[in-house]
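Why does residue order matter? Because the sequence determines the fold. Keep that principle in mind as you read this record.
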Amino acid sequence: MTLADKTVMAVATRALAFGLGFILLTTTVFNDSPYRVTDVRLQVEGLDADHHLVGRTLAWAIGDIAPGGETSFVAEPMPGAVRYRITVVSYDLVSLGQAP
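Structure:
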């Protein structure tokens, strides 16, 4: 996703295991742009070992993201998925600047 030909978002995901086999995917969304953004919507695709799609869902990042800032979201793992592809599909521009 770009604004004025600059990279805007990057994501990093990891799985968190809780008791009784309960697992959540926790993802950090980084805002590398000079813009404050909000309402960041992400598409999460689960892929099997052969890179075939086994599921898809949409998620929202939490709150506004200041320039250079980050936020997160969580999602449930998809049955059969061994890896995930996460794409920013939309966001709203709030303002220029206002770094933390």
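The domain at 2-93 is CATH 2.60.40.3230 (Immunoglobulin-like).
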